[in-house]
C-alpha cells in the first residue's frame, strides 16, 4: 500500500474463541477511545448485513448447508467487500476496532481440515492489522461461561481444534491477553496495548497488506 507519512487510524483486530469476551472488550474499548476524543468505529466479521453476510448467517444458523471451501471463500469475500471502505476510513484517521478477521477465517477452516496455504490465499492483499489482540482462554473455561448459542461452530470439541489452529498462526502483530482474568483487568491491559498502537499509527506507521 502507498507509503505516506500522514497520521492515520489504526486497524486493531480482536481474535479468540467464542465466549472469550471479544465483543464486550471491543465495546468497552470503543467507548473509552471515543471518550478520549478519538475517531473510532466498531466493525465485525462476518458482517451479516451485506448480501454475502446473509449467506454466511444462514450457514452459521444451520439454515443452509455449504461445502467447507465455499463458506471459507464467502467469509473472505465478506472481508473483500469492505476492504476499500476500510482503507478510506484508516487513511481519513479513523481507528477501526474489528471483532474477528482473517485469522478467524484461517483458524476455523483449517480446524475443519482444509489446507493452510489454500485458506490463506484469498486473504492475500487485504489490509494487515496493526495489532491483533488475542483473548486467550481455554476452550473448557470458555464453555463454562455458558451461553454458547446454537450456532454451527459453538461446540466444545470443535472449539478445542480452533484453539490449536489459532496458536499455530500467531505472528509478531499478536498480543496475547489472558482472558481468564476479571473483565476489568483484561480491559485495562487492552487499553494500554491499543493506545500504544494508535500513537504509532498517528506518527505515520505504514499500512501494509496480508500476509507479512
Ligand atoms: N468465522 C468467522 C469463520 O469461520 N471464518 C471467518 O472468516 C470469520 C470472520 O464464524 F464461529 C466463524 C467464527 C464464529 C462464527 O462469528 C461467527 P461471530 O463472531 O460469533 O459472529
TrEMBL record:
GO terms for molecular function: kinase activity. Pathway: Pyrimidine metabolism; dTTP biosynthesis. Its EC number is 2.7.4.9. SUPFAM superfamilies: P-loop containing nucleoside triphosphate hydrolases. Transmembrane segments: none annotated. PROSITE patterns: THYMIDYLATE_KINASE. Belongs to the thymidylate kinase family. This is dTMP kinase. It comes from Gossypium hirsutum.
Amino acid at each position: 500500500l502507498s507509503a505516506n507519512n500522514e497520521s492515520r487510524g489504526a486497524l486493531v483486530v480482536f481474535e479468540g474463541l467464542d465466549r472469550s469476551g471479544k465483543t464486550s472488550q471491543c465495546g468497552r474499548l470503543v467507548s473509552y477511545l471515543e471518550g478520549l476524543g478519538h475517531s473510532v468505529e466498531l466493525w465485525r466479521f462476518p458482517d451479516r448485513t451485506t448480501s454475502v453476510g446473509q449467506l454466511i448467517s444462514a450457514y452459521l444458523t444451520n439454515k443452509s448447508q455449504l461445502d467447507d471451501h465455499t463458506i471459507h471463500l464467502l467469509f473472505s469475500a465478506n472481508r473483500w467487500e469492505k476492504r476499500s471502505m476500510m482503507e478510506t476510513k484508516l487513511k481519513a484517521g479513523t481507528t477501526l476496532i474489528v471483532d474477528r478477521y482473517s485469522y478467524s477465517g484461517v483458524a476455523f477452516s483449517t480446524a475443519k481440515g482444509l489446507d493452510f496455504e489454500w485458506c490463506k490465499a484469498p486473504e492475500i492483499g487485504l489490509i494487515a492489522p496493526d495489532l491483533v489482540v488475542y483473548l486467550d482462554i481455554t476452550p473448557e473455561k470458555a464453555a463454562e461461561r455458558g451461553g454458547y448459542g446454537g450456532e454451527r461452530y459453538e461446540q466444545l470439541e470443535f472449539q478445542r481444534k480452533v484453539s490449536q489452529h489459532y496458536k499455530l498462526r500467531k505472528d509478531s502483530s499478536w498480543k496475547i491477553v489472558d482472558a481468564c482474568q476479571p473483565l476489568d483487568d483484561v480491559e485495562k491491559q487492552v487499553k494500554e496495548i491499543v493506545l500504544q498502537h494508535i500513537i504509532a499509527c498517528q506518527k505515520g506507521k505504514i499500512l501494509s497488506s496480508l500476509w507479512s
